[in-house]
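Let's see one such:

===
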Amino acid sequence: MTHAEARADLAAAFRIAVKMNWHEGIANHFSLAVNEEGTRFLINPNQRHFARVRASDLLLLDANDPDTLSGPDAPDPTAWGLHGALHRHVPWARCALHLHPKYATVLASLADSTLPPIDQNSAMFYDRVIIDEGYGGLAFEEEGERICTQFTDPRKKVMLMGNHGVMVIGQSVGEAFNTLYYYERAAETYIAALSTGRPLRTLSDNVAAKTADEMNAQDHLVDAHLAEQRALLDAEGSDYAQ
C-alpha cells in the first residue's frame, strides 16, 4: 500500500464513523502506522471534526519524538498519550481506532462489562476482549502508557475501556474498522437484550470459541467491507481522499 492509499483509507474511516454516528464532538482519534517498525503514524489533526478530515489533513508523527506536543501542528494531548504509546510498544497495532460509540460505552459503564456470546456477532469476541478496569482520568501520556501495557495477546484486538469507551486495533484500517463495526453491533444487541428483562440464551463455551475462530478467519471480508464503505462515500462525492 502506498502512503497516499494509507492516508485515503484512514480518512475514509473518519467519514464512515460520522455516518455510523460513532463520533463525539471534536474528540476521539484514529491512527495508522506507515513505517515497518510501526513507530511513524498518521493521526487526525487536533480539534477537527471527523466530517471534515481529509487525507491531506492527517498529521504524520513519530512515536519516539519527545517534542511532538511542542510543535506548531501538535496533536490532541490525549491522542498523543494513547496512540503514541501504542505505536511505541505494540507493533501489531498498525491501526488504532479510539471512540466513545453509544453501545460500547454503555457496556463500559456496567459493573460487569463482559460481552456474553448470545449471538453470532457477540461470539466473534469470545475471549478476545481486554476489559480495562483501571480508568485514571484523561489519557495523557501516563494513562496511555498504562493502557497499552495490557495489549499482550495479538488475538485480543478490542479493549473495552471501563468508564470511558473503546480502543480497537488491527493490522490495517480495514481490519480495525470491521472489528469495531461488529463489536458495536454486538454491544447494541446485548444492551437491547438486557432491556427486555428476560433470561438470555447464551452459547456454550465450546460453541462460542468455535464461532469466534470461524468468524475471525474471514479475512477476505475485511478489506471488502472497507472498500464498499469507501465506494458509498465516493458515490456521494465525498472529499475524504483529497
The chain has one domain: 3-235. The longest helix spans residues 173-195. Helices lie at 3-19, 77-89, 102-108, 120-123, 141-148, 173-195, 205-216, 219-235. The domain at 3-235 is CATH 3.40.225.10 (L-fuculose-1-phosphate Aldolase).
